[in-house]
Amino acid sequence: MPLPKSDYLSDTWKDGLFANKVVFCTGGAGTICSAQVRALVHLGANACIVGRNVEKTEKMAHDIATARPGAKVLGLGGVDVRSFDSLKDSVDRCVKEFGAIDYVIAGAAGNFLASISQLSINAFKSVMEIDVLGSYNTLKATIPHLVQSAQKHKVDSNTLKPSPLGTGGRIIFVSATLHYTATPFQAHVSVAKAGIDAMSNTVALEFGPLGVTSNVIAPGPIASTEGLERLVPSDQKEQSKKSQPLGRFGSVRDIADATVYLFADTGSYVSGQILVVDGASWRMGSGIGASNYPDLLLSGDTFRNVKGKKKSNL
Predict the structure, then answer these.
(1) Sign of the C-alpha dihedral, residues 259, 263, 269, 274?
(2) What is the rounded CA–CA span in Å between residue 195 and residue 208?
(3) Are 254 and 277 in contact (CB under 8 A)?
């Protein structure tokens, strides 16, 4: 169903900003990534979102398309980011449908709370494959199209005027702040996100000469997302919210606005950067599992009142 614009985009940006542009997004049916894509579609882009769940991905694509009359959003389910061939096929379908890919959001991810003692080898491997390998596969499958888009949308180095065709050739990796100070019960995701940050920085250096920009958006605790449901027990949410420096959780609109900033002319000289959108939360420590530390570790128990919790699996 259509969402009010205020739920996913501020009034700062002008309509038509991304007219005739195409965005490709992995994890596009998720709460954060769908808001990012919805904002771009509202501002003129067409989109292709991919995910493993066919019904969920197709339903979300139809929903995102309501952001703008005439918008085209292709939802491709049954896509496993761990398989390059699966991703490459979806990229080819996107280009066949829309003719190009100008922007990429690598947002597919997995997370749950587990101590290292409770974290099996397969569980650790799964997160690494979805987050790190999945992001790399996304990059490899889309980078030829991003290079082409960057060449068509160059900023004039003498006048600094943007191309009359607008911007293009940009990729955002969705990361996190968990590894900045270390976070208990999040070793798997911390390692994966650190790898994603490093990957983006290298992309910025290797493909910058070809006009491509690469950046990371690192969300903090974002309200009404599956990530928050998985990481903060339901009986600790109010206290966790009060402990945030700004006294609130972030919103998906905060992440969507950051995405627009990086993809628009405003981000033309921003590359190889990590844009943290967390209201200074990470500087206080993540707070994840804080009230249970170290008692939970010493007891060998698992988290309660969270989605997707992992039982001991040594």
Answers:
(1) positive
(2) 19
(3) yes
Listed in order, strand segments (DSSP E) in 260-307 are 273-277
Bond into 209 cis (ω within 30): no
Q: What number of residues does the chain have? A: 314
Q: Is residue 176 part of a domain?
A: yes
Tokens standing for residue 195: 């790898």
**Could you tell me if residue 307 is inside a domain?**
no
Tokens of 110: 């997995």
Model pLDDT for residues 1-30, shown as the tens digit of each residue? 678 898 899 889 999 999 999 999 999 999
Flag whether 312 is in a domain. Answer: no
Instruction: Provide the CATH number for the domain around residue 155.
Output: 3.40.50.720
What distance in Å separates the CA atoms of residue 275 and residue 300, rounded to the nearest whole number? 36
For residues 200 and 178, what is the distance between their CA atoms, to the nearest angstrom?
17
**What's the CA gap between 50 and 58, in Å, rounded?**
9
For 249-283, how does the pLDDT look when each residue is reduced to its tens digit (9 = 90+)? 889 999 999 999 999 999 999 999 999 999 998 88
Question: Which letter does DSSP use for residue 24 in this model?
Answer: E
DSSP one-letter code for 269: T
Q: Structural domain tally of the chain?
A: 1
Query: What is the domain extent for residue 110?
Result: 15-299
The answer to pTM > 0.85 is yes
- Over residues 120-133, the pLDDT tens digits come to 999 999 999 999 99
- Residue 156 falls inside a structural domain: yes
For the chain, what is the mean pLDDT? 89
Active-site annotation, residues: 175, 193
